[in-house]
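Two folds, back to back.
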Amino acid sequence: MSALRCGFALRVASALVGVTCALWSFVPAKVAYANVSLKITIRDEGIAPLAFSAKQGELVQIDVVNQGTRTHNLVIPAFYIFTQNLNPGEDVQASFRPDKTGRFPYYSDTGGKPEPGISGTMTVNP
C-alpha cells in the first residue's frame, strides 16, 4: 500500500511540475531596459557633457551639480524636468523615462531665460 501511495504521489507531483512549466511558458516576458546614469556639471561658462543619449522608455538618472559661482538649474522641457535653482556647490537628482524619440535641448534657465553657453542636447533613440 505504501508503494502504491508513493507511486501515485510521484505521478501527481510530476503532473504538477508539467502544469507549472506549461503555465510558466505563457507568462509574457517583461521588457528590459538599460539605465542611463550620468552627472551633469554646470559651471558659469558651460555645461558638461554637451550631449548624451538614451533609449525611449529606459530610465535616465541625472545627478546635477552646480560647480559655478552663480545660481544655476537644469531644464529639459520636452520631458518636464525643471530642477530647483542650485546655489554654488549644491546638487540635485532627477530621473525620468523618455516617452518620445528625437533630439531635445537641456539648459540652465535661472531667471526664466536660457543662459548663453549653458546648454546641451539629449538624443533619444527608439
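---
second:
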Amino acid sequence: MASERQSFMLGILLGGIAGAAAALLYAPQEGKQTREQIKGKALEAKERASEAVSSAKESAEKAGAKGREYVEIKTAQVREAVQAGRKAAAEKKAELQAESKEAEHKPSI
C-alpha cells in the first residue's frame, strides 16, 4: 500500500515538474529568465520529493512499529493461553490420578 502511495506521489511530482517546465518554455520571456525559473522549480520539486520520501519513510516506520507491537501482543496472548492449557492439563491429570487411586482402594462388589 505504501508503494502505491509512493508511486502516486512520484507521478504527481513528475507531472507537476513536466507541466511547470512546459509552461515556462512557452512563456514569452528571455531564455536566461526561463532557465532560472526552471532551475528554481527544479529545486522546489527536489525539496518536495525529499519531503515526500521522508514522509513515506516515517509512515513505513510507524507501520512497522505497529506491526511489531501487534506481534508482541499476540505472542504474549498465545504464551498465556499455552500456560493456561498446561495448568489445566496438569490439574486434570492430578484429578484423574486421584480418582484412579480411589478406584484402586475401593472394595470390589
